[in-house]
Structures are given as C-alpha cells and as structure tokens.
Amino acid sequence: MFKEAMKKCRLIAILRGVRPDEVEAIGRAIYDAGFRIIEVPLNSPEPLESIRILRSTLPADCVVGAGTVMSPAQVQQVADAGGQLIVMPHSDPAVIRAATDAGLASAPGVATVTEAFAALAAGADILKMFPAEQLGPAVVKAWRAVVPASVVLAPVGGITPDSLQTFMQAGATAFGLGSALYKPGMSPQEVGANAKAFIHALRACETA
C-alpha cells in the first residue's frame, strides 16, 4: 500500500499542529492536489483523533500515518487509530521493528550513513534524511554513492518547491513537506494552493 502510494506521488504531507476539527477539509485539499501520503505528528493536538478522521474520510489509496513517533507503545496507538505509516525523528531499531510487527511502514530519521544502514538492517521502508537544511544536496549525492538506488532517500526539513530539483538531481527520491505546505492557522484553500505548487514543481522535475 505504502509503495503504491509512493509511486503515485513521492511527496509526504506533514500536518504538524493540525486540529481534528479542521483535518478533514485540509486532508481533502491535499489529496485533491495529488498527494497520497499524509502524516500527523504526534505532538499535534489530539493527533490520534486526526489520524482516525483522515483514515475514515479519505479514499483508500491515501496512506495516513503519524510523525514524531518515539516509542513502540506509540506505534501500537497509531495502528489502533488506523495509521499505516510510522515516521520518526530518530532511528531507534525497536520502533522500526514495532512498526514492521504491526504491519506498518516505517520512515526513521537518519543523519549519517551509519544510521542509514542500521535503520535498513532493522527493516526501515524508506530513509528520512533529517534535517535536510543541515545535510543539503551534497550529502544526498555522497550517500547515493553507497546507498542502493532501490532505497528511497527522503529529505525532510525546509524543503520548498524551488529546492526539489536540486535535491532530486543529487539523488533524492521522495520528500517530506512541513511548514512550506502547512502551518497552523492556514485555511484548506491555502494548503491546497501550496500542495498544488509542490505537485507542479515535482512534475516539472520529473519531465525535465
């Protein structure tokens, strides 16, 4: 399911700070723009309720998950809420294994090649290169010399429509999008416009 969603759109929407009373409309705007993976960080207001709402209202081909997952216990809470993806700021193998055992995809955060290969050994589905602002395209390119092409490298942190091309040319294959896509207080219309801008930039890179 996660791999199919990634094939349709390699952009992951990060809705940090979203509230349950607004998440359906925002999620729908993002989905309608072309996104197929949406993440609600667990440090958002009532995140598990937002995950339940997204999972029950968006089409089945949209993967809904949680971000800022720090423990195996939280993995189970996300699974119970209907989540399908575990995104982490770190690469704790216990959390990665808990996600795999629960039948959920995992995207651990890594900042070194050592962490990257340890996460893959633990069963990670994709690698979240975090923070992207610090690592930059040069590090992505260097990692690609040793990380197999089949492994998805997804920079997260400070990604904008204008920076997609540089990162993709360096070897990035997916992206997590935060404040340039959604910030608390934005209307569904604003988020939808941002989502369309990212989709347009991605398609332009793919056809360049």
Automatic annotation (TrEMBL):
Entry keyword Lyase: yes
GO MF, one example: 2-dehydro-3-deoxy-6-phosphogalactonate aldolase activity
Domain of life of the source: Bacteria
Entry's family note: Belongs to the KHG/KDPG aldolase family.
Binding partners and assembly: Homotrimer.
NCBIfam families: PRK09140.1 (NF006600)
Name the UniProt record assigns to this protein: 2-dehydro-3-deoxy-6-phosphogalactonate aldolase
